[in-house]
Amino acid sequence: MVSALLAGAPALADSSRPPAPLAYTQLADPAKEARAKALMDTLRCLVCQGQSIADSDAEMAGDMRALVRERVEAGEQPEAIRAWLVQRYGDYVTYDPPFSWVTAPLWIAPLALLALGIVLARRTFGRERD
């Protein structure tokens, strides 16, 4: 019984509602669609976490694509749309979060791990020469 419920859980993950109107439909104006696409390429899918909303098939990414297109169509600037999404979802929605105390580990960790690797490599290879 439990295994049947667990096996069916992925099928229940997506809702049965249709996708947002502009989730998979481009804007009629090519210049506006280009602005929307450029913005969508810089926004992270909050479900997939490794894909932009332009590349993701997740339902939430479709909703975010539709929202971006609706706002671009209404004449809103991409920077304002991006700021609104960051306010709503946090800095994680962007691939380039600003440096702050909250995001400092994202910026410092790679450098610290690289320095640690260099120190460990020098100690390891330094011992073999002695």
Describe the structure.
This protein has 130 residues and is mostly helical. The chain contains five helices and no strands. The protein has helices at 2-8, 30-40, 59-73, 78-89, 104-129. The radius of gyration is 21 Å and the shape is elongated. The mean pLDDT is 84.
Please write out the topology.
Elements: H1 2-8, H2 30-40, H3 59-73, H4 78-89, H5 104-129
Low-confidence stretches: none
The largest sheet is:
none
User: How big is the Rg?
Assistant: 21 Å
The span between the termini is: 64 Å
Structural class: mainly alpha
Please provide the ordered H/E string of secondary-structure elements: HHHHH
SS field, number of helical segments: 5
Global shape: elongated
Strand content: under 5%
Quick recap of the structure?
By secondary structure, the protein is mainly alpha-helical.
List keywords for this structure.
130 residues; mainly alpha; 5 helices
